[in-house]
Every structure is written in structure tokens, then in C-alpha cells.
């Protein structure tokens, strides 16, 4: 049997099947092997799909051979292929890392369930990205969200339970808003296929239910992607989740929500409907700037590194939305590039912090004093990723910032360009908090000597840090894919 | 014989490799210092082999990688960069000799980190000198700030940290807030950031935009220490003296003014700036730089701490270069380029002397220096010669550059600039000559607890002797820098 | 009775009003109540309102299930039912997970009142800062 035409389905099916398999097999080493194999196969499939899209354009796959507007369509285009590579790539690195990491943080009898939830979450995120069906998007969104709540609740601290609960409430409200939006769109168009919906919406554009749908979807997705001021669930969730989970969701979950937002704005409603007739640009600009400045400032005053970088994530999401608010090719390119670059950077930081937590027993600034001497490579890695958050040349973050500033200049918005670079100083300030504690304080005496980061954790973290630097120097993959995706989205309906 | 392109990369790689070897040889101080010596000589050697190539009119160029369309990490050697590389690498040789004496004489800690970071700073400096476009220059400019930071806070004490914070905050802050947007804007307008003869912005911007962009660039290049962003330079004086000497009299500050000249000549274009509107878009720059010259000189006049006085003198001397560049006439530009070299050799001598006084007599204040010339005749002799250069008196090289700058100001008929040069020359004399006078003609105060001391360790005296000799030698034989300066102006 | 200017009859659209009422009531409970169980009840009501939003427009008066036969000409749309079946499953899963979390929270904190739990957490985190 030739599997090549079925790659879009396999992309979701492989991790989806791996999840029950891990439950049935129960032995944690076997469960680990199954999940690991699934994530690596998923990465291979994603890369294969990306290559095929780069060559031959959009792939449409009819599930169960039911043709598109009636059956569920899986659709891989330049944007979704790019996001698929990000999600599977992070998963493929986090899984080998998680084995040693959860050893220290999760009771052993729950390990196989960790892998189940991880595989399920991966399946959900991939499903959201690949599906071309509105209701399917919601279902996969809930699959990934439910498994993320469980993963967060596995955290060592009892506050993880509360964080998971709060995220569940906020996330479910968000998801319900999204499903209301989809329902209204379905009522107006009679179809659930996203492309078909986009075509049919033209006839009823600007009517009140469509506007209501846009509002519901925007608010719901903003909750999911933690746009300021709907970000309250995020800091606790990132801070108290097991390290491997923090890394995975920080790098992927919010980014996939951004993807859905882009998909609905550009492929369903259409650019003109969202930006030309409504003051969306101004609203997004304002929220993005508020998010960047408020969250970055709050980050400076955190005493725990995981919380510090969680607030930094809220700020960085502001940059992603800021790019969107320009409604121009370079702005959209900045959004998509930053979605990738920030995913990689934050993923790397949380992976490294997992190693820190393992060795020093925590990530509070008081605890990591003198880390530069104790764990020189890890500290250096965090500093490198910090430079990427600031946007120093030679790191991935610089490329995104470059496009953002350029987009501001294209619009003739000088003041905005200055606000962007001024906000970099806030990032520099919170990264400096780490540098100061790690390099200019003497190590604590009570640290256990001899504890080391296991190689299975060090290698994935190192690889991801290398990726941060690599994509700061060679941008052909990131900017190339992002520019292609931006052109595709702005080209309207294909 | 290697191809010039390869030599270019070699000159970048030598200090990097040196830094790695120094770090590895940390356990064996003698070996470490030997490696430093070999690295400095290898770097000077490779830079020197490039000199005839550039003088002959060739412009070796290498492109390392392309980040975005029109945005490459690329190197291209032209006369100005050649001069800068020559000064930095040449003085590094002398400075390493001096460092060995200073670091051992004062029993400093973390010497391996010190030498390794020093080599890294030189690598970054070479990157700035060889940069083929503004983007590459920006990268190495930031790198230079980062790798010099551990040197500034070398002592690790509270004041050192505070000084380091000002240093890092101001230099990184200005470069991110002002220079980065300027860089993106230039790329946005011109589609490239390559250093091109005649500039890349000709006819692309209006008068107001040009003046605004110039302001962004000039204040963004914080290393040029234009007021009000000059405070990092006195703050950096908490560093050990060899750092102040090479980095904050030569490499870092000269990287600043070098970037200023480079941006004005190769990005904006001298003719473009001169032709834009009444008085030129650069007119305000003359005023700001002129103010910096006079104000910094006045502060220096009232500073009792010797290194602080030297730091403010540096602020003022850097502003000379910026001001005369902004006059935009050939003579003043030649003066500016020459002054990069002249000030470098002069100021490094002064810092060397300050460090020698600290090492031998443990004195840091000007008021303590009564009669010290009798105990340290060589040191203070060299100090006196360098002082002449700072004031602009023959037979020191400072006279030559000041001559060109003054004639440039007259040629431009910019009487404010002429007045500033004259007044500041008087101020220079006012804050430097008393030191020399005290050292040689005031009897030492009776201080029984003052231990008897002679000259500083031999390597230090040799080093400061060499640089003071260079100030005189360049007065009589200014051919090489003058030729390179002329080539920069009229390629 | 007609709403001014919209052409909508109150009677004809009563399902929308019920939907809206449930939606707002549910959301209000989630926000206003501090008891973790009550919050979940509110969340369920909120979700239930959406089921109604989907199903109600699919029903036509006198419509049957879509059976291919000459006897029936008016069909109700079956698709919303199918969708909502899925949504109900999702809702049940969410509720189950939420309740499971509440059980674990009670084990860990000895309370299911939000304000009490937050004050329990405030104390250790302050100790951590002083550390």
C-alpha cells in the first residue's frame, strides 16, 4: 500500500493511535518508546508535507473519500505546513527530554499517562492545524486543551492543580465562544468547510450575525492565545506545569491558536472584511502594545524564572499580534516568523529551566544564584535565548523584530518603530535579572553537589538553543516560508 | 602568500583562536602570556600584509552569509577601516606588554578571563573595521559592548558593577533604541546597507528626514560619546587601566567615531549631506559636538581624579572628530581621520602613565602628584610628550591633525567651529599642563608614610615609552595615515 | 409582536432568547461564584446554551428526519444534531476533568472555595520570596 497520498491523515492519526496504545501497554519504558516513535514519525511526515507543499502547492485530502464541501477536508498549505513543522519539531525534541525530566517531577505510576496525554495533545494540535473544517477545528482544540489541563495538573506543586483548574475554566469559555462563532457562521452559510465558508460569506458580508461571529471568534481565540488582557491563565499554567510540559505548551499551544486566528481572519472572513470595515487594526494595535509593555514590565518584577518567562511570553504574543495589526505583507510575515521564532526560543528556555530545576531544586531567582559557575552551559544557553527575546542580531528574535520595524516604517509610523525598540529594553531588563543572579552572585551553599543534567535532557535543550542561533543566521526556511504563507493569506481565496 | 580575501578572514580569526587558546592555557600563566604575545603579533602581521594591498587601490571583500535580501554579513576593507585596524592591532601589541606588567604588578584576579576577553574585544574591533555594510558593523558593535563588559566589571566590587551597569545600559540602550531603527529605515529606503562611495541615500530623502536619520545614527552610536550620552565613558574607568587604555582610549571609542565617519561618508554621502537644504542636514551636529568639546573640557578641568580627567578629555577629543566630520569639507575630513590615529597614540600613553603611577605609587588623584616626575622621570616624560599631542603642539602628531581640522573649519567658513577649536585648545592646556608642572616643578609634600618607589615594572615603562615615541614619530612621518585619510576622502 | 425595526417576532425567535438567557446566566455563575463546583455548573449551563443555538435552527415545523421517500418533502437538518452530539461529549469530558481536578484540589487544600485556597497559597509564596 502506498502511504504517500495519505500523509495528511497519518499526520494526525499516528499520534492519535499512539495515545490509547500507551494506555494499553502501561509499562512506562514501552509507553515512552511508543510516544517517541509517534512524535518522530509525525515530524518526518510534517517535513515531507512541507516539502510537497513547497513544490506543488496546497494539498487537499478528503477524509474517507467524501469530497470537500460535504466531507471533512484536510488542507495543507504554506502556512499550515510551516506550523506543522514547528509543532512536530518541538514535540520530537521535548519527548526524549521528558523521560528524565518527569522522572524527577511526576510519580512513576503516572508516567505512562503522561505519554498518553502528550500524544493526545500533539494529535489535537496537529489536527487543528491541518483540518479544513470549522467544527473539526473546535473538536481538536478541545482534545488538545483537555490533555493540556491534565498535563499541567501533573505538576509537583499543589498550585499546579489550581492553575489547571483556572486554565480549564478560561479555556472552556474560550472554546465555547469559538463554537458560538462557528455556529453563527454555519447558520449564515450552511457549510462547515473553511474554504467553502469563505466563498459563501461574500454574499452575506457585513450582516449582524457575521459580525457577531467575528467578535465571538476573536474573543475566544484571544483567550486561547493569551492576548493581553485575556492572559491570566498563562503565567500560573506555565510556572507550575512540569518542565517538559511548560516547554511544549509555551512553544506550541498559543502559537496554534494564533494560526487559527489567522486562518479565520484571512481565509474565512477575508482581509477586507476584518480590517477595512472595522476598527480591528486600531484595537489589535492597542491590545498588542498594552500587552508588550504591561507584561514585560510585570516580568521584570517576578521572583521566579518560570513566571518571569511566562510573562515574557504574554509580551511576545503582543509582538505577534502587533504584526497582524499592520495588515500588510511584511507585518503578516513578521507575525508568522515570530510565531516560529518565539516558539523555538521559549521552548528552549523552558527546556533549560527544567534542567535548572532538576539540579537546584527550583527556579526562583534566589535559588539560582551563581548558576553561571554551577551550570555554565545552561546559563549561557538561557542568555543566548534571552538575547533572542531582546532581538539582538545573530539570534532568531532579531529577524522577527526586523520585519516588525520594517512594517512600521512602511506605514510611516515612526513612533511605533520607536515603541518596538523601546520595548526591547524592557526585555533586556528582565533578561538582565537572570544574568545578574546567575553571574554576579555567589552560589548558594546548600546546593546539592554533583547533581547533573542528564544527557537525554541536555541534548534536546542544546539542539533547540542551536536552532535559535541557526535561524538568526540562516533565514531562508523561516522567512521564506513565512513570506510565502503571508502572500497566500493576503491573496485571498485560492 | 595568501589571497587578500583570505587574509581578511584570517585577521578576524586570529584573535578568536587566540582567545580560545588563552582560555585553555589558563593554568599556566607564562604560556598564556606567550600565547597573547604571539596572537597580537600574528594579528598585526596579517593586518600589515593587507596595507600595501589597500594602498594599491584594491578592496578585498568577503561575504559570509546572507540574512535577508540586501542584508549580508559581509566584509570589505577600505582605507578608513585599514587605518583603524592598523591602530587597534598595533597598539594591542604594546598594550599586551603593558598588561603583563600591570596585571602581575597589581596581583589582579581572573587574569585568564581578562586576556581572553581582551582577545575577543579585538576580534570584535576587527569586525567593525572590516565591516562591508552597516548591518555587519552593527553586529560587531554590539558584540564589542558585550565582550568588553566583563573587562569593565573586572574587580567585581560594588562600584565596578554600578559602572558596568551604566556602561552596558547606555551603550546597548542607545544602539537598540536609536541605531537599530535607523538601520532598518536605511535598509527600507535604500534596499541595502552596503558602505558605498558617495553614500546610498542620495536623492532618496527630504531634508527633515535626512536630519532626523542623522540624529538617530549619531546618538545611536553611543560609543562616540556625544553628549548627553557620554556618561558611560567615565563610568567605564572603574576597569583596570590596561582596559581603559586600549579599549576606552582606542578600540571602543574609536569604533564609535570610526562608525560616525563611516556612516557619514559611505551611507549618507558627504555631497548629499552638504547639498541638502540650507546649511546642510549636518549643521546641528556641529553645534552639539562643539558643545560637547567645550563642556567636557570644563568638566575635565575640575576633575581631580586622573583617570576621570582623562576620560572627559577623551569625550572632548572624540567630539572633535565628530564635529570636523560634520563640517563636510575635504580638509576637515582628513583632519578627523588623522585625529583618530593621533588621539589613539596620545591617549593610550596618558592612560599607560596613569596606570604606571597607580602601580608604582598607588596614587589616583591629580593633587597627589606633586614631584612625582623626579621619581618616575620616564613615565612623566612620556606623559608630557602625550600632553603636547593632546593640546596640539609640535613636535607631536596632535599638531598635524589639529592643523587639518582648523584649516578645514576655516575652509568651511564655519566660525563657530573655529572658535570651539581655539577655546578648547586653551582648556586642554589648562587641564593638562598643571599635571606636568606639579610632577616636575612642585616639591613633593612631606608624607612620612609614603613608601619610596621608583618607576613601574619594566614592561609598562617600555610600553609607554613606545607609544610616546610613536606620537613624535607620527609628527615627522605622517605619510601612512595621511595617505589612507586622503584615499578615504577621494577614492 | 415585533421588535422595532428588525422584523423579528418575539414568539418566532423565543429559542434565541432562551439561548441568550442560559448563556449569560452560565457565564455569570462562572464569574460571580467562588465555589469551584458551582463554577463548573455555570460552565455547563453556558455550554448547554450553545447546544440549543445549534439545534434550534435545524428544526423545521413539520419536518422529519431526512428519509428518501415521496411521502416526506420537508426535512429537518440532521447535521447540527451530529455536531452537538460531539459537543456534548466534549462538554461531558470537560466537566468530568473539572470535577476530578476539584477532588484533587480538595485533597491538597482541604477546601473548594477559591478565596480560601488563594489565601492558603499566599502564605508559602511569601516565605519563598524571603528565602
Provide a short characterization of the protein structure.
The complex is a heterotrimer of chains A (494), B (491) and C (131). With 494 residues, chain A is mostly helical.
Write up this protein.
The complex is a heterotrimer of chains A (494), B (491) and C (131). Chain A is mainly alpha-helical. Chain A has helices at residues 7-25, 28-56, 78-105, 111-130, 134-153, 159-189, 194-204, 208-225, 233-240, 243-269, 271-276, 280-300, 305-325, 329-360, 371-374, 376-390, 396-410, 414-439, 455-473, 476-490, and strands at 59-62, 73-76. Chain B has helices spanning 4-24, 29-55, 79-105, 111-130, 134-152, 158-190, 207-220, 232-235, 241-268, 270-275, 283-301, 306-327, 330-361, 372-375, 377-391, 397-411, 415-441, 458-476, 479-489; strands at 61-68, 71-76. The model of chain B has no long low-confidence stretch (mean pLDDT 84). In chain C, α1 (14-32) runs antiparallel to α2 and α2 runs antiparallel to α3 (79-109). The chains are: A mainly alpha (494), B mainly alpha (491), C mainly alpha (131). Chains in contact: A-B, A-C.
Topology:
The complex is a heterotrimer of chains A (about 500), B (about 500) and C (about 130).
Chain A lengths: L6 H19 L2 H29 L2 E4 L10 E4 L1 H28 L5 H20 L3 H20 L5 H31 L4 H11 L3 H18 L7 H8 L2 H27 L1 H6 L3 H21 L4 H21 L3 H32 L10 H4 L1 H15 L5 H15 L3 H26 L15 H19 L2 H15 L4
Antiparallel strand pairs in A: 1-2
Helix pairs in contact in A: 1-2, 1-4, 2-3, 2-4, 3-4, 3-10, 3-14, 3-19, 3-20, 4-5, 4-10, 5-6, 5-10, 6-7, 6-8, 6-9, 7-10, 8-10, 9-10, 9-13, 10-13, 10-14, 12-13, 12-18, 13-14, 13-18, 14-16, 14-17, 14-19, 14-20, 16-18, 16-19, 17-18, 17-19
Chain B lengths: L3 H21 L4 H27 L5 E8 L2 E6 L2 H27 L5 H20 L3 H19 L5 H33 L16 H14 L11 H4 L5 H28 L1 H6 L7 H19 L4 H22 L2 H32 L10 H4 L1 H15 L5 H15 L3 H27 L16 H19 L2 H11 L2
Antiparallel strand pairs in B: 1-2
Helix pairs in contact in B: 1-2, 1-4, 2-3, 2-4, 3-4, 3-9, 3-13, 3-18, 3-19, 4-5, 4-9, 5-6, 5-9, 6-7, 7-9, 9-12, 9-13, 11-12, 11-17, 12-13, 12-17, 13-15, 13-16, 13-18, 13-19, 15-17, 15-18, 16-17, 16-18
Chain C lengths: L13 H19 L3 H20 L23 H31 L4 H17 L1
Amino acid at each position: 500500500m502506498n502511504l504517500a497520498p495519505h500523509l495528511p491523515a497519518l499526520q494526525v492519526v499516528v499520534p492519535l493511535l499512539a495515545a490509547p496504545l500507551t494506555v494499553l501497554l502501561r509499562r512506562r519504558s514501552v509507553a515512552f518508546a511508543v510516544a517517541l516513535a509517534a512524535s518522530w514519525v509525525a515530524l518526518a511526515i510534517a517535513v515531507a508535507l512541507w516539502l510537497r507543499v513547497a513544490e506543488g502547492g496546497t494539498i487537499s485530502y478528503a477524509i474517507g473519500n467524501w469530497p470537500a464541501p460535504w466531507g471533512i477536508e484536510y488542507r495543507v498549505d504554506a502556512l499550515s505546513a510551516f506550523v506543522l513543522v514547528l509543532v512536530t519539531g518541538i514535540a520530537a525534541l521535548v519527548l526524549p527530554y521528558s523521560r528524565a525530566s518527569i522522572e524527577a517531577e511526576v510519580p512513576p505510576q503516572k508516567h505512562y499517562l503522561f505519554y498518553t496525554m502528550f500524544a493526545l495533545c500533539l494529535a489535537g494540535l496537529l489536527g487543528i492545524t491541518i483540518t479544513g473544517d470549522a467544527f473539526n477545528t473546535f473538536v481538536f482544540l478541545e482534545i488538545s486543551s483537555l490533555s493540556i489541563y491534565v498535563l499541567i495538573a501533573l505538576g509537583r506543586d499543589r498550585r499546579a492543580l489550581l492553575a489547571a483548574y483556572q486554565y480549564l475554566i478560561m479555556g472552556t469559555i474560550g472554546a465555547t465562544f469559538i463554537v458560538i462563532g462557528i455556529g453563527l457562521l454555519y447558520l449564515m452559510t450552511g457549510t462547515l468547510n473553511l474554504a467553502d465558508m469563505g466563498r459563501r460569506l461574500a454574499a452575506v458580508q457585513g450582516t449582524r450575525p457575521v459580525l457577531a461571529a467575528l467578535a465571538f471568534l476573536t474573543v475566544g481565540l484571544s483567550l486561547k492565545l493569551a492576548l493581553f488582557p485575556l492572559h491570566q491563565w498563562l503565567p500560573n499554567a506555565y510556572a507550575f506545569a512540569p518542565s517538559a510540559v511548560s516547554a511544549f505548551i509555551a512553544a506550541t499551544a498559543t502559537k496554534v491558536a494564533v494560526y487559527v486566528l489567522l486562518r479565520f481572519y484571512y481565509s474565512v472572513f477575508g482581509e477586507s472584511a476584518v480590517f477595512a470595515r472595522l476598527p480591528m487594526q486600531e484595537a489589535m494595535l492597542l491590545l498588542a502594545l498594552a500587552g508588550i509593555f504591561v507584561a514585560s514590565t510585570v516580568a521584570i518584577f517576578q521572583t521566579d524564572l518560570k513566571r518571569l518567562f511566562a510573562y515574557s511570553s504574554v509580551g511576545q504574543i503582543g509582538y505577534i499580534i502587533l504584526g497582524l495589526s499592520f495588515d500588510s505583507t511584511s507585518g503578516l510575515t513578521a507575525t508568522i516568523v515570530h510565531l516560529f521564532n518565539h516558539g523555538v526560543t521559549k521552548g528552549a528556555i523552558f527546556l533549560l529551566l527544567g534542567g535548572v530545576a532538576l539540579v537546584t531544586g527550583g527556579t526562583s531567582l534566589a535559588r539560582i544564584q551563581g548558576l553561571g559557575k554551577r551550570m555554565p552551559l545552561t546559563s549561557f544557553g538561557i542568555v543566548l535565548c534571552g538575547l533572542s527575546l531582546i532581538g539582538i542580531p545573530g539570534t532568531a528574535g532579531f529577524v522577527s523584530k526586523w520585519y516588525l520595524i520594517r512594517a512600521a516604517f512602511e506605514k510611516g509610523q515612526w513612533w511605533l518603530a520607536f515603541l518596538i525598540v523601546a520595548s526591547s529594553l524592557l526585555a533586556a531588563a528582565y533578561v538582565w535579572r537572570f544574568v545578574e543572579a546567575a553571574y554576579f552572585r555567589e552560589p548558594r551553599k546548600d546546593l546539592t553537589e554533583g547533581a547533573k543534567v542528564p544527557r537525554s535532557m541536555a541534548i534536546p535543550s542544546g539542539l533547540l538553543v542551536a536552532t535559535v542561533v541557526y535561524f538568526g543566521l540562516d533565514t531562508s526556511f523561516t522567512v521564506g516560508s513565512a513570506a510565502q504563507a503571508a502572500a497566500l493569506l493576503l491573496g485571498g481565496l485560492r | 602568500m595568501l589571497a587578500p580575501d583570505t587574509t581578511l578572514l584570517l585577521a578576524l580569526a586570529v584573535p578568536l583562536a587566540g582567545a580560545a587558546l588563552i582560555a585553555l592555557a589558563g593554568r599556566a600563566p607564562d604560556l598564556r602570556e606567550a600565547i597573547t604575545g604571539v596572537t597580537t603579533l600574528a594579528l598585526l602581521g596579517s593586518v600589515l600584509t593587507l596595507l600595501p594591498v589597500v594602498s594599491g587601490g584594491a578592496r578585498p571583500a568577503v561575504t559570509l552569509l546572507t540574512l535577508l535580501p540586501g542584508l549580508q554579513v559581509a566584509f570589505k576593507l577600505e582605507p578608513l577601516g585599514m587605518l583603524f585596524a592598523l591602530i587597534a592591532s598595533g597598539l594591542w601589541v604594546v598594550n599586551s606588554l603593558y598588561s603583563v606588567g600591570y596585571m602581575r604588578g597589581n596581583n589582579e584576579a581572573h587574569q585568564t578571563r581578562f586576556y581572553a576577553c581582551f582577545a575577543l574585544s579585538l576580534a570584535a574591533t576587527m569586525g567593525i573595521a572590516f565591516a562591508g555594510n552597516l548591518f555587519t558593523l552593527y553586529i560587531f558593535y554590539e558584540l564589542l559592548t558585550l565582550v568588553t563588559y566583563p573587562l569593565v566589571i573586572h574587580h567585581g566590587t560594588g562600584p565596578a558593577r554600578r559602572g558596568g551597569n551604566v556602561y552596558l545600559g547606555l551603550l546597548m540602550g542607545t544602539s537598540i533604541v536609536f541605531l537599530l531603527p535607523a538601520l532598518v529605515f536605511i535598509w527600507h529606503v535604500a534596499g541595502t546597507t552596503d558602505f558605498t562611495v558617495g553614500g546610498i541615500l542620495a536623492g532618496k530623502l527630504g531634508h527633515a528626514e535626512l536630519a532626523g536619520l542623522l540624529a538617530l545614527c549619531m546618538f545611536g552610536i553611543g560609543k562616540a560619546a556625544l553628549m548627553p550620552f557620554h556618561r558611560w565613558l567615565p563610568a567605564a574607568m572603574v576597569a583596570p587601566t590596561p582596559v581603559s587604555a586600549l579599549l576606552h582610549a582606542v578600540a571602543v571609542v574609536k569604533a564609535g567615531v570610526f562608525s560616525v565617519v563611516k556612516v557619514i561618508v559611505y551611507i549618507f554621502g558627504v555631497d548629499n549631506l552638504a547639498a541638502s537644504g540650507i546649511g546642510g542636514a549636518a549643521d546641528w551636529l556641529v553645534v552639539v559636538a562643539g558643545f560637547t568639546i567645550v563642556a567636557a573640557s570644563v568638566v575635565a578641568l575640575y576633575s581631580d581624579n586622573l583617570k576621570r580627567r582623562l576620560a572627559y578629555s577623551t569625550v572632548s577629543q572624540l567630539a572633535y572628530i565628530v564635529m570636523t566630520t560634520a563640517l563636510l569639507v575635504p580638509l576637515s575630513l582628513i583632519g578627523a581621520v588623522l585625529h583618530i590615529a593621533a588621539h589613539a597614540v596620545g591617549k593610550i600613553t596618558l592612560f599607560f602613565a596613569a596606570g604606571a603611577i597607580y602601580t608604582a605609587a598607588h596614587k589616583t588623584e591629580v593633587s597627589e602628584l606633586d614631584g612625582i616626575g623626579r621619581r618616575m622621570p620616564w613615565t612623566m616624560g612620556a606623559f608630557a610628550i602625550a600632553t603636547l599631542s593632546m593640546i596640539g603642539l609640535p613636535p607631536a602628531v596632535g599638531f598635524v591633525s589639529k592643523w587639518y581640522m582648523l584649516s578645514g573649519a576655516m575652509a568651511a567658513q564655519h566660525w563657530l567651529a573655529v572658535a570651539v577649536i581655539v577655546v578648547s585648545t586653551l582648556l586642554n592646556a589648562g587641564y593638562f599642563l598643571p599635571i606636568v608642572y606639579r610632577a616636575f616643578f612642585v616639591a613633593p609634600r612631606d608624607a612620612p608614610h609614603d613608601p619610596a618607589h621608583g618607576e613601574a615594572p619594566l614592561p609598562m615603562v617600555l610600553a609607554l615609552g613606545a607609544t610616546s615615541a610613536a606620537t613624535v614619530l607620527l609628527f615627522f612621518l605622517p605619510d601612512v595615515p595621511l595617505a589612507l585619510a586622503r584615499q578615504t576622502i577621494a577614492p | 409582536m415585533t421588535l422595532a425595526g428588525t422584523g423579528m417576532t418575539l414568539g418566532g425567535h423565543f429559542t434565541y432568547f432562551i439561548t441568550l438567557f442560559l448563556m449569560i446566566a452560565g457565564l455569570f455563575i462562572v464569574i460571580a461564584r467562588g465555589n469551584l463546583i458551582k463554577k463548573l455548573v455555570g460552565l455547563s449551563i453556558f455550554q448547554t446554551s450553545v447546544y440549543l443555538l445549534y439545534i434550534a435552527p435545524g428544526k423545521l415545523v413539520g419536518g422529519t428526519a431526512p428519509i428518501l421517500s415521496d411521502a416526506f418533502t420537508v426535512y429537518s437538518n440532521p447535521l447540527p444534531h451530529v455536531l452537538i452530539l460531539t459537543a456534548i461529549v466534549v462538554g461531558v469530558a470537560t466537566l468530568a476533568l473539572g470535577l476530578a481536578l476539584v477532588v484533587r484540589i480538595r485533597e491538597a487544600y482541604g477546601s473548594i472555595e477559591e478565596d480560601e485556597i488563594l489565601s492558603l497559597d499566599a502564605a508559602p509564596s511569601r516565605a519563598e520570596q524571603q528565602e
